[in-house]
Design a protein that fits this description.
Layout lengths: L2 H4 L25 E7 L3 H4 L3 H11 L4 E7 L3 H10 L17 E5 L6 H10 L15 E5 L15 E3 L7 H16 L5 H8 L5 E2 L4 E5 L5 E6 L8 E2 L27 E4 L1 E2 L10 H4 L4 E2 L2 H15 L3 E5 L9 H12 L5 E3 L9 H8 L7 E6 L3 H7 L5 H13 L4 E8 L6 H22 L4 E8 L16 H14 L5 E5 L2 H11 L5 H11 L12 H11 L21 E2 L4 H12 L2
Parallel strand pairs: 1-2, 1-3, 3-4, 4-5, 9-19, 10-13, 13-14, 15-16, 16-17, 17-18
Antiparallel strand pairs: 5-6, 7-8, 11-12
Helix pairs in contact: 5-17, 6-7, 9-10, 10-11, 11-13, 13-14, 14-15, 17-18
Length: about 575
């Protein structure tokens, strides 16, 4: 049936599967069938390392088959709905209901309506309470699960933390009960209760929440005996020996990150007070240089990719990073394979790294000053020294680099006009510095996003700046930018507003997500699909004011995500917050 649709859709290779290194197993003989879902397009999902890790772990187990589902494009959705056909897996072209477990990776709050769309296109009831033993279990994990409450009614359970540390234990628990469960000999509640004994499992139906007259949470508590009052995050303790997908799938179409990605460290040694990823990936763990080299060489041999990217929250803080780059460049230079790094810190040795990387291929350099003034960087606890940065950058320009990308935020607490001026002033200096070195100024791409005070950060008690003010600041920066070598890119304020609401929200937002989906919301992270009217109407119909979730929070207030223990105590985060307001 799928072949009949391929000539009618854009990028049909999104849906055919059969990639190089794809897992090939017999569907019918598998003991447990796992549907791995990523709520965005194929080219986005196949750039996600977490998806590749889970796919590899599950398919390495003899009696388990794991097959992928991605969001279908709006063109294919239209066809499926007109024909009443279902979304199918890439590997065996099976329907969602043919699987035992449906697992979603929640990487962004703006993907929530895509989650519902995948379930709906698979004829799976959206609400967990409407699914009995005849349906697959629907579970979720990933960064957005650090506050699962806005999606609580759609999932049977959430996995809080890192999948590598949890999957095998979870699968064994399911295997133990599968036969009796699918035969209706034990109830769904009993099955979920057995899962709730595992560290990192959150079963939302086992908890009840009450609210006061202002809409604040009065109490969050278990309603079933034996259920933990707090959910402790799982994490891989020995990262150096954790699973890595050496048989890297090679898509037929270009993906967002079309290369091999090696995660060299997990966690971060820095103290940035706004960064949720610090809590998500805490504690800091690193891979050995020997391990990284072996993984890079094996992945290249099995894929033929001409770029190896090193991933981590702060890769330039990797111990002996110069030695690592030297070894990688030495291994790949003769093969014409480039080595790239994501956003890096402005440290003295970066120019040396740039020189080494430039021996193969001179890609652009990316840095995140985050704010236009040192005063605001101190508030953000961002380790960035302008003098050291410019000195390092001059060395990189001398090595032949021409393009720079800078990341900034606006809407930072205590921000003023001078801080905004600093964004443009620093960007101009970055551009003009190259003229002193190479007689031609550099092109500088400037990405500017609104700060979202995320859960599990010391900014979680701050209000998010009003959308109207964000627009005024964007307009001011546009007017101030006269240099043609500077290119400003702003995030859509409506999208930032919605992300802020969903990331800071409580259980009542599940109705809003459902309503927005039914009104047509899809791909809310994509500017060409995003329609804020769907969400505005959904909030009005639900009787909820979205601005309620963006207000300043009292220090003694129960926050919707307080029941999740990331390993960094709330007391420590609160201590950091009080230091910020005293700055």
């Amino acid at each position: 049936m799928l072949n009949d649709y391929l000539l009618q859709v854009n990028k049909p290779a999104r849906y055919i599967g059969e990639e190089w290194n794809v897992s090939r197993k017999d569907f019918q003989s598998a003991g447990i069938k796992f549907a791995l879902c990523f709520p965005d397009l194929y080219e986005v999902g196949m750039s996600n390392l977490g998806i590749r890790i889970i796919y590899g772990i599950l398919n390495s187990m003899p009696d388990i088959i794991c097959e992928r589902f991605f969001s279908c494009g709006t063109d294919l959705e239209k066809i499926l709905r007109s024909t009443s056909d279902e979304i199918l897996s890439l590997e065996s072209k099976k329907a969602l209901k043919d699987f035992d477990i449906i697992g979603f990776s929640l990487g962004s709050e703006l993907d929530y309506t895509n989650v519902l769309n995948i379930l709906d296109l698979g004829n799976i009831p959206l609400q967990a309470k409407a699914r009995d033993n005849a349906y697959p279990l629907v579970i979720a994990g990933g960064p957005s699960a650090l506050n699962p409450e806005p999606m609580h009614e759609f999932f049977d359970l959430f996995l809080i933390g890192e999948a590598e540390d949890f999957l095998l234990e979870f699968i064994e628990a399911y295997r133990k009960h599968k036969t009796h469960y699918r035969a209706f000999k034990i109830s769904k509640q009993d099955l979920l209760l057995s899962f709730s004994k595992l560290q990192g499992v959150y079963v939302p139906s086992f908890y009840e929440v009450s609210y006061d007259l202002e809409g604040k949470i009065r109490e969050f508590k278990p309603q079933i005996e034996g259920v933990p009052p707090k959910i402790k995050k799982r994490f891989v303790k020995d990262f150096n020996s954790s699973f890595f997908p050496k048989d890297w799938l090679v898509p037929y179409i270009q993906t967002i990150h079309d290369r091999v990605t090696i995660e060299i460290m997990r966690g971060c040694p820095n103290r940035c007070s706004f960064c949720q990823a610090k809590s998500q990936y805490y504690p800091l763990r690193v891979r050995s240089i020997e391990n990284i080299l072996a993984l890079a060489k094996t992945s290249h041999e099995r894929t033929g990719y001409e770029e190896v990217s090193l991933a981590g929250l702060s890769v330039s803080d990797y111990p002996e990073v110069e030695k690592l780059i030297r070894e990688l460049v030495g291994a790949f230079k003769a093969k014409g394979v480039s080595v790239s790094l994501p956003s890096i810190k402005a440290k003295a040795q970066v120019s040396e790294l740039s020189s080494m990387l430039g021996q193969i291929k001179k890609t652009g350099l990316t840095f995140a000053p985050e704010a236009g003034s040192q005063r605001l960087r101190n508030i953000l606890q961002k380790d960035f020294d302008e003098t050291e940065f410019l000195k390092m950058l001059a060395g990189s320009y001398a090595c032949g680099y021409q393009h720079v990308k800078l990341y900034f935020m606006i809407g930072i607490p205590f921000e003023n006009r001078e801080d905004l001026d600093g964004i443009i002033d620093l960007s101009v200096r970055v551009s003009e510095l190259r003229k002193k070195v190479k007689n031609v100024s550099a092109k500088v791409n400037i990405s500017i996003n609104a700060l979202i005070p995320k859960p599990h950060t010391s900014f979680q008690w701050f209000a998010m700046e009003a959308e109207e003010n964000i627009r005024k600041k964007q307009d001011y920066l546009k007017d101030k930018t006269k240099n043609r070598r500077l290119k400003l890119n702003f995030h859509n304020p409506h999208m930032s507003f919605l992300e802020g609401v969903l990331s800071r929200g409580d259980r009542r937002l599940a109705r809003v997500v459902s309503l927005a989906f039914k009104k047509g919301a899809r791909f809310d992270a994509w500017g060409n699909y995003f329609n804020f009217e769907f969400w505005s109407d959904a909030f009005k119909e639900s009787g909820l004011d979205p601005n309620f979730y963006l207000k300043e929070r009292a220090q003694d207030e129960i926050l919707p995500w307080d029941f999740i223990d990331t390993g960094i105590g709330k007391e420590l985060i609160l201590e950091e917050f009080n230091k910020l307001i005293d700055t």
